[in-house]
Amino acid sequence: MTQENNMQVPFFTFRDFPDGIHARIEQTLVEEYRRQQFILGASVQEFERSFSDYIGVKEAVGVGNGFDALVLSLRALGVGPGDDVLLPGNSFIATINAVQQVGATPVLLDPDEKTYNLTAQAVNQAITQHTKAVIPVHLFGLPCPMPQIMQVAQEKGILVVEDCAQAHGAVVAAGK
Ligand SMILES: Cc1ncc(COP(=O)(O)O)c(C=O)c1O
Fold first, then answer.
1. Residue 113 is part of which domain span?
2. Average pLDDT over every residue of 29-34
3. How many CB atoms lie within 10 A of CB 102?
4. Are residues 134 and 77 part of one domain?
């Protein structure tokens, strides 16, 4: 076996985060531990405010994790048993789990071979009378072609729940 074959690829690491972030995370964890208010406290409110500013929306609601965010969004939109939900077959497992959690049926679509993201064409072709929603997943930091997907969704009358777990702050340039 060559040395290259022995290379260890860490599954997840804070290694590449900007300088100083470790100290800030440690300090915040200690502060929160001392405050003993882990749910709906001042820090969550502050996070919701700064995150909504960062992504340019009026409101953000802090939840436990990305899976919960998807489940709550689907529930809020009334997606449930008897509904088909379109999503890319190459997403992280939480996306399909969320659809199953609300009792809806996941319909896995092939992504674009260059971007690995859903295309408006694939969404358009997959819509049937049972389709209630589509979940475009912005994988690896690259946004899906949202203007086109939104147009298809509006024309066909289906709901759109974006999974931004891998693309916080990513933007689609005007006209793209
Ligand atoms: C595309 C995608 N959706 C959803 C999730 C779920 O997020 P969480 O692990 O916070 O539940 C992840 C997590 O990596 C993800 O990559």
1. 66-160
2. 91
3. 19
4. yes
